[in-house]
Amino acid sequence: MEEAGAVVATAGEAELNLSRLSVSPETLESELEARGEERRGAREALLRLLLPHNRLVSLPRALGSGFPHLQLLDVSGNALTALGPELLALRGLRTLLAKNNRLGGPGALPKGLAQSALCRSLQVLNLSGNCFQEVPASLLDLRALQTLSLGGNQLQNIPAEIENLRSLECLYLGGNFIKEIPPELGNLPSLNYLVLCDNKIQSVPPQLSQLHSLRSLSLHNNLLTYLPREILNLIHLEELSLRGNPLVVRFVRDLTYDPPTLLELAARTIKIRNISYTPYDLPGNLLRYLSLASNCPNPKCGGVYFDCCVRQIKFVDFCGKYRLPLMHYLCSPECSSPCSSASHSSTSQSESDSEDEASVAAHRMQKVLLG
């Protein structure tokens, strides 16, 4: 039998490493009970318990009684199908590592998790490499959570309630089957790292531009053909990974354009000519409509639009090497030049404008990984 682990004490804290034991789960249970008894008389509290790569099929019962001050628990690489009620007894647990198990079925997480003390203490949760098909609802109430890893599962979507995790700084959802990014993901004020690589995502919602703390965005190996123009607003973004996406080099420019209504034409005239009005001049519904005006991104246009606009892809230079396809919304087809295969040397007005815009923001993007 391998060495059964050792207590490592340092300045008022201790770690118990019982990883990779060649013993049965029953023997490991007895070992934990004995170690728990030893710690009850010790001056320093046991803060870290490492149990990875054993043959555990359930959490040891000794957790609930022998390790009340535990801050980190690692049960990765076992055969767990559920995290039982023993977990709820660890009232001060900050880090739970349970990757590469068999979690994901009904009852995979203990009942009452959202109402337990863990809701206030748990900061890091790693459930990657399991069998979850959806994000468990109880996880969305862990308001103190700073890092959530659910990579390598079978997730089909990201619930809108993800916005409840207001303390989240790192979200890892790579290696799933996610097709859409909910706009609510943009409501996480502290998010620094967002990993959505190796999924089936086809578009990025413009609401991600609200992630003002975001430093790293991993979107490689998806189905993206463009990015929203608003991504330029991520002023702290340092890493953008896009390799392995079908970033095509030609798009249809003759897009269908429905003529604006008489209401919109009148509202455009008021905005473009700066016709003055007061709240007493117009009904409330017209005042609200006028407040919804969007400026055309072409600086040589000066127009506005409300409901009717032209959607167009523009390639923007970053770092002097890569060209990112960004989505633009123009006020009319006249703001863009038709695609001309005969004139490769000429650059359309709106393309030039897009590149000018990008040159201002290029210093924000230190690493663009396209291949």
From TrEMBL:
Biased segments, Low complexity type: 342-351
Gene3D superfamilies, per the entry: Ribonuclease Inhibitor
SMART domains, A to Z: LRR_TYP (SM00369)
Ranges where the record places region Disordered: 342-361
Keyword Repeat among record annotations: yes
InterPro entries: Leu-rich_rpt, Leu-rich_rpt_typical-subtyp, LRR-SigEffector_domain, LRR_dom_sf
UniProt keyword annotation of Repeat present: yes
Keywords: Leucine-rich repeat, Repeat
Protein name: Leucine-rich repeat-containing protein 58
Protein source organism: Balaenoptera acutorostrata (Common minke whale)
Gene that this sequence comes from: LRRC58
